[in-house]
């Protein structure tokens, strides 16, 4: 068993070409691979970070944006602890598709999942979506909001670290009142199996 | 010593002094005599040595003369050797020049022969000889040709190049003719000549084009789906995998053509040209595969819309199997391409090998076949999700209806999940297997959470038998359906238990079976992580079970509390022996029923029940007053319970020990003996022990306070 206290699944979704893979690469490997090809199906990366002196393992699922992979990517929503919905600030259509993505999230994801809206590519000169429009959208739909640049490594680390902090707080809150019936736990065994991934669902 | 010194040293004026001086002189005289005789004795040997030396000197002169002669000779030899080696070098140069001249003469003769020979061979349709001539020309040293030209001979290269071009044109024309006639033997014979005339790439292109045309017609025939057109929804009954078979034939035709290319390229020692041929052939295979898969997708969609509303999920199974089979065939074809490229290029230099493998991978990634496979997988996953949801809903409905033959919800659900996971793995795609695992985990969790837990949270009346303490209330006659409800409830608890085990078993099975699909560590990690999702389902089943056990305890609680009150009662009944055994008798009934119906949870449940009784009894004791008789009665009952727990409910032993000490305190003859009751180790805090002692009406408060505990 590896040495970590929490394991969280983070899933990135959004239209093709908005920079999901680049965000993940930047965070996990510190790279910005130019000319990145389209993701096939789902890609999988792991990074362990430290929050308040505790090891947190982030399992990052980078999904393909193209329509034909939808039935694969949808199957990852349910077990996600956090969903990052990405659009390209220099491409209006990627922003216009957000309601469709939200519908999909509503349908397949856990309703308590942490949702973050990310406007990527702030390094681009040809911005089409002003920051406040993105902020308004996020606020209307109860999402966190952040603008990032995978190319310039801007806000990328912050995005994932804040997710880790938030999820850890949620997990700690939910850890306390387990089986809070008046009779107390009858079962002495621990309820988590295999890994600690179920610590958020009780 | 000189005389003056003697005279100074000794006083010669006296006789004594004279005598001493004389002695001294005599001693010196004898020393001088001895020295003289020594010197004389050495004179002989000195003479001998001098003789020897003079002899040696004469010999040395002879040696010097000899050495001089030798040195002169060596010098002469060296001069001679230098002379010889210079001559040898000259000879060597001359020899190599002769060899070069010979080669050039040969080349020039050959050049004449070649250009004339090519013409002649072409006229005689002997292309092999012509190609050999050209190959000879190509292998000639450029210097020979240049030298020939420099000596004023007509430039043979232009003749030769013209001849080679003519040969190439002839070969291309002949190739086209053979291709038109579909004369495989001629095509292969002609192809082998292209590498010899330095036109391998053109040969590969011609061969690939020829095979592409040939394969296209084969694929066109192979892709005809028998008995199931695009609208063949009615053909679902005839469940043979006609589309998958057609796809297999298409891919086999493609693979056959590629095998021929491979064999010919290996023969020509040019396996690095394989990507060039693949680039021409792959689109033909892609088009055929897309045609068949398009028709399969249309049939699946047709069947889906026809049977989607009220249709049985089971009807989708043949299509699911066919989709999975078709997808695995596509994966197999791609694996064939990768494997063969790797093995054919094994002997090439590393850089060339790498670029060849990369070129093939690029063709694969950019080919339409990848798109076809992705679309097919998407259709499969959509249908699989529908099948899974419908089948599990049906199983849940069946189990809730409680009619017809008894069926275990968990068995049904896991049968479905296992089938779906196996089929997902059979697609040959890690992404497909992962998605199916995710869906199965979700479905199992839904089944456990939504269905089992809801049912288990609400137990029927008296789910397990536990007689009430006397006076027993009149037992209501058990309704028949109540008994059935109880049995079903307990069965559900067992199902939750086995559901957790099943989930874990499925996860390890999936990892074992899916391992073969993974081509790299990342894919392995993906598969493991998705299989671990089944762990969450196991946790949900365990949670459902915990909820049920808590509900059971809650249902037993009123009677357990009544028994606790009975245990703590201060009165002493007449039939002491019988009364002492009443509680353990009731617990025996409970234990027997639990062991029979909840074998896995019985121990845990009994321990919890005993713990409940003990906790409640402690609580009751502190609200009663006792005389010694009453205390003794409580002690006997507590000891009996502890003894029973010792053999039947090990988990509650600790709690019983505490109750026994508490009862022992109640039964003391004198408060001063309290420390005896707390032997061997006190399980009650001093303050608690004093509270208990205070329950005895005959113990004085001051005495209790004074006790050292």
TrEMBL record, chain A:
Enzyme class, UniProt record, top EC level: hydrolase
Query: EC number(s) for this protein?
Result: 3.6.5.2
Q: tRNA-binding as a keyword?
A: no
GO CC entries: autophagosome membrane; cytoplasmic vesicle; Golgi apparatus; lysosome
Cofactor(s) needed: Mg(2+)
Q: Which SUPFAM superfamilies match?
A: P-loop containing nucleoside triphosphate hydrolases
Key words of the record: Cytoplasm, Cytoplasmic vesicle, Golgi apparatus, GTP-binding, Hydrolase, Lipoprotein, Lysosome, Magnesium, Membrane, Metal-binding, Methylation, Nucleotide-binding, Prenylation
Keyword Methyltransferase present in the record's keywords: the answer is no
Membrane topology type: Lipid-anchor
* Cross-referenced SMART domains: RAB, RAN, RAS, RHO
Report which reactions are catalysed by this protein: GTP + H2O = GDP + phosphate + H(+)
- The leader peptide range reads none
GO terms (molecular function) for this protein are: G protein activity; GTP binding; metal ion binding
Subcellular location per UniProt equals: Cytoplasmic vesicle, Autophagosome membrane; Golgi apparatus, cis-Golgi network; Golgi apparatus, trans-Golgi network membrane; Lysosome
User: Where is it chiefly localized?
Assistant: membrane
Q: Which NCBIfam families match?
A: small_GTP
Biological function = The small GTPases Rab are key regulators of intracellular membrane trafficking, from the formation of transport vesicles to their fusion with membranes. Rabs cycle between an inactive GDP-bound form and an active GTP-bound form that is able to recruit to membranes different sets of downstream effectors directly responsible for vesicle formation, movement, tethering and fusion. RAB30 is required for maintaining the structural integrity of the Golgi apparatus, possibly by mediating interactions with cytoplasmic scaffolding proteins.
Question: Family assignment?
Answer: Belongs to the small GTPase superfamily. Rab family.
Please give the name of this protein.
Ras-related protein Rab-30
Source organism per UniProt = Arctia plantaginis
UniProtKB/TrEMBL annotation, chain B:
**Where do the coiled-coil regions begin and end?**
none
The protein's location, in the record's own words, is: Golgi apparatus membrane
What sequence ranges are listed for the domain COG4 transport protein middle alpha-helical bundle? 160-457
GO-annotated cellular components: Golgi membrane
Q: Which Pfam families match?
A: COG4_m, COG4_N
Where is this protein primarily located?
Golgi
One GO biological process term is: protein transport
Keywords from UniProt, A to Z, are:
Golgi apparatus, Membrane, Protein transport, Transport
Question: What membrane topology does this protein have?
Answer: Peripheral membrane protein
What family is this? Belongs to the COG4 family.
- Descriptive protein name: Conserved oligomeric Golgi complex subunit 4
């Amino acid at each position: 068993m590896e040495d970590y206290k929490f394991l969280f699944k983070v899933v990135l979704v959004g239209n093709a070409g908005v920079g999901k893979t680049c965000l993940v690469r930047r965070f996990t490997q510190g790279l910005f691979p130019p000319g990145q090809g389209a993701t096939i199906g789902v890609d999988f990366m792991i990074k362990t970070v430290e929050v308040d002196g505790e090891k947190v393992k982030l399992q990052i699922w980078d999904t393909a944006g193209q329509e034909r992979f939808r039935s694969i990517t949808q199957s990852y929503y349910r077990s996600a602890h956090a969903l990052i919905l990405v659009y390209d600030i220099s491409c209006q259509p990627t922003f216009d598709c957000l309601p469709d993505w939200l519908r999909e999230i509503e349908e397949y994801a856990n309703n308590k999942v942490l949702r973050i809206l990310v406007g990527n590519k702030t390094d681009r000169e040809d911005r089409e979506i002003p920051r406040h429009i993105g902020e308004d959208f996020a606020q209307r739909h109860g999402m966190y909001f952040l603008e990032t640049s995978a190319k310039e490594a801007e806000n990328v680390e912050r995005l994932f670290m804040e997710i880790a902090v938030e999820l850890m707080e949620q997990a700690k809150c939910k850890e306390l009142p387990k089986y809070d019936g008046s009779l107390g736990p009858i079962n002495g065994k621990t309820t988590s199996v295999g890994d600690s991934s179920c610590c958020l669902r009780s | 010593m000189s005389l003056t010194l003697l005279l100074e040293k000794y006083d010669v004026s006296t006789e004594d002094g004279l005598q001493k001086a004389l002695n001294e002189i005599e001693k010196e005289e004898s020393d001088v005599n001895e020295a003289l005789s020594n010197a004389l004795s050495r004179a002989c040997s000195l003479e001998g040595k001098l003789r020897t030396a003079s002899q040696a000197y004469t010999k040395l002169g002879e040696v010097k003369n000899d050495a001089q002669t030798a040195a002169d000779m060596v010098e002469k030899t060296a001069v001679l050797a230098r002379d010889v080696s210079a001559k040898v070098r000259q000879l060597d140069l001359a020899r190599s020049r002769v060899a070069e001249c010979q080669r050039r003469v040969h080349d020039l003769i050959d050049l004449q022969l070649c250009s004339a020979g090519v013409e002649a061979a072409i006229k005689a349709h002997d292309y092999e000889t012509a190609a050999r001539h050209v190959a000879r020309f190509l292998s000639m040293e450029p210097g020979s040709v240049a030298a020939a030209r420099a000596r004023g001979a007509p430039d043979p290269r232009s003749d030769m190049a013209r001849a080679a071009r003519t040969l190439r044109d002839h070969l291309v024309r002949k190739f086209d003719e053979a291709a038109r006639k579909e004369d495989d033997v001629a095509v292969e014979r002609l192809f082998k000549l292209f590498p010899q005339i330095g036109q391998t790439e053109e040969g590969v292109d011609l061969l690939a084009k020829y095979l592409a045309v040939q394969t296209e017609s084969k694929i066109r025939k192979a892709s005809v789906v028998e008995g199931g057109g695009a609208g063949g929804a009615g053909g679902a009954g005839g469940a043979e995998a006609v589309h998958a078979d057609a796809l297999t034939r298409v891919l086999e035709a493609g693979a056959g053509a590629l095998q021929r290319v491979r064999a010919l390229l290996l023969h020509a020692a040019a396996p690095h040209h394989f990507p060039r041929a693949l680039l021409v052939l792959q689109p033909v295979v892609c088009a055929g595969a897309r045609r068949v898969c398009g028709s399969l997708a249309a049939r699946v969609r047709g069947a889906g819309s026809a049977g989607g509303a009220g249709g049985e999920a089971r009807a989708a199974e043949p299509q699911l199997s066919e989709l999975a089979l078709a997808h695995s065939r596509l994966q197999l074809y791609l694996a064939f391409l990768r494997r063969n490229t790797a093995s054919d290029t094994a002997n090439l230099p590393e850089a060339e090998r790498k670029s060849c493998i990369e070129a093939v991978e690029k063709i694969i990634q950019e080919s339409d076949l990848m798109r076809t496979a992705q679309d097919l997988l998407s259709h499969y996953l959509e249908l699989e999700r529908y099948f899974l949801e419908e089948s599990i809903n049906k199983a849940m409905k069946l189990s809730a209806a409680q009619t017809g033959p008894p069926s275990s919800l968990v068995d049904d659900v896991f049968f479905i999940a296992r089938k779906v996971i196996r089929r997902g793995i059979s697609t040959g795609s890690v992404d497909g297997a992962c998605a199916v695992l995710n869906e199965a985990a979700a479905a199992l969790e839904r089944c456990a959470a939504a269905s089992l837990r809801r049912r288990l949270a609400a137990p029927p009346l008296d789910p397990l038998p536990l007689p009430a303490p006397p006076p027993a209330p009149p037992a209501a006659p058990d309704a028949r359906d109540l008994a059935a409800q109880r049995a079903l409830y307990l069965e559900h608890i067992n199902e939750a238990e086995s559901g957790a085990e099943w989930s874990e078993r499925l996860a390890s099975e999936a990892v074992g079976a899916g391992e073969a699909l993974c081509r790299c560590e990342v894919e392995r990690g993906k598969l493991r992580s998705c299989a671990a999702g089944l762990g969450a389902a196991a946790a949900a089943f365990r949670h459902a079970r915990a909820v049920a056990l808590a509900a059971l305890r809650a249902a037993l609680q009123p009677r357990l509390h009544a028994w606790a009150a009975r245990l703590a009662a201060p009165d002493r009944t007449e039939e002491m022996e019988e009364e002492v055994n009443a509680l353990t008798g009731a617990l025996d009934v409970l234990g027997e029923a639990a062991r029979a119906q909840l074998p896995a949870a019985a121990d845990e449940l009994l321990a919890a029940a005993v713990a409940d009784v003990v906790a409640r009894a402690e609580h009751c004791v502190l609200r009663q007053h006792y005389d010694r008789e009453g205390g003794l009665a409580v002690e006997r009952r507590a000891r009996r319970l502890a003894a029973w727990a010792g053999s039947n409910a090990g988990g509650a032993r600790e709690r019983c020990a505490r109750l026994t000490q508490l009862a022992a305190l109640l039964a003391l003859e004198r408060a001063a003996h309290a420390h005896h009751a707390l032997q061997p180790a006190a399980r009650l805090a001093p303050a608690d022990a004093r509270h208990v002692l205070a329950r005895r009406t005959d113990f004085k408060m001051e005495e209790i306070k004074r006790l050292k505990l």
